[in-house]
């Protein structure tokens, strides 16, 4: 009897638990309103706290807002510091740890100013009052008495009710988000916290950015392109200047490619930095190398040259004998440690995940930003190579969701190339079930799909699709030769790789061969056009921010240097432009119903590229539609448009793949 009663009680308890525990649901487009984004973490001087920006969506106002938060290093406390609807970003600790500064245009300001908040409490107060120019960056001096400012000044600062004509005389005259490029200069300034005076540190016709104070506070290292005409190349070098007005700057690096991401060694004698492998004027198919150089200049040490993988985010170890950095390698990004003497690398912490930023803690441990396929970006402490989660902002987002599983696979292309891919399978997919399948192609092209959280592919998988991410040739993470092979040969080997991955999922019983779709944004949209012009097996496509008639964007987009150096001038090498334009010039061979999308203000791949393909499809009677998002640049940032794009993806593919 006792056993019977016990089992009965247990059964009732389990039944009650099953009823009160909500079932997991699929991701849906409106979830874009719930996803938060962490950025710019900063460790307090004593090491007890991490300040960072947290961006959230206000669905009523249809806008993102960024606030400053603070997380304790022990993981026990999380505190929101700002609540302004105007937004705050770039948190920075004063060197004594008493104050936290940030930038904001709150209280009706027309541009960002630095605000100062006492850690003990109270409202933040406005610190700077910059009347001319736009503040873009700043850095505290080690003694806390001065702040280096980065301010962009317009050559014509007069105000007028009627906009003046845009007068342009530059070679590179367009840039996404920035718009038309006129004669603006970006310089460094020194703000004195005691006198409130701003002194000019650099001036002239060139730009200076990214100020980094030397440990003793006497010098500032910065980045500048001081070639005769910076518009005609992508060179950047590291320069050093004494931290006082009218000082003379000194060039530290002389490489004709890019030198950047500089970090002073703890003793102030060396500078760690990144440089490109290419010394050419235009740098596309490339990967960064970790280097060190004396603060006085001279021959640099190329620490990671033999690694043949991109290295990023260099941070010196506490004792200055080595440098931590992030390495991109075949669908992952891991943290490695490089000897400052000979470059010997030790893999510090890795796995099927993606580290996107690191900072050194005062103890010598690391703070990292990291995500994995089922966890959006959070902050983590790394102590003796053990990863410990600090922030938990994504827990509420993830709690109700059943996300797709993600696994890697390798496919062979028609010409024998080996290609690394990722497969997203819906949470409710049955084993052995053939699924409608989408090849969703990354942009770049120099980028990689990796074991990190991907909202787009998770969203499409939640709609019932197997989703394939293809790291086609041209992608990063597989070495320089793998990356460079597509130069001036667009839409060839990449298409072979996409079709090879498609063959794999069909032959292995994953994809229903009668229900295949393809899509992507930017270079992913371009490759969508190339692929449907090559193979008619795809029953639906979505091409975002793409182009097919290549010559039509010469002088229209921001890639003038790429055209000049990779393809040559159209009047000298028009046959190459024609050959690369086959999706448009042979549009009558395309059978795939295709949806075209683009931001109205996109200067990266302007709307004309999508409009031309849409018009060709309408003229030919191929099912199509064109969606233009008003006032959006290359990246769609308006939350309601992000939701709308996901809904349109799903509706379009459902129409043709789920009949």
TrEMBL record:
Keyword annotations of the record: Acetylation, Hydrolase, Protease, Serine protease, Signal
Superkingdom of the organism of origin: Bacteria
GO biological process: proteolysis
Residues in Peptidase S9 prolyl oligopeptidase catalytic domain copies: 452-659
Protein name: Acyl-peptide hydrolase
A GO MF label: serine-type endopeptidase activity
SUPFAM superfamilies per the UniProt record, alphabetical: alpha/beta-Hydrolases, DPP6 N-terminal domain-like
Provenance organism: Emticicia aquatilis
Signal peptide stretch: 1-18
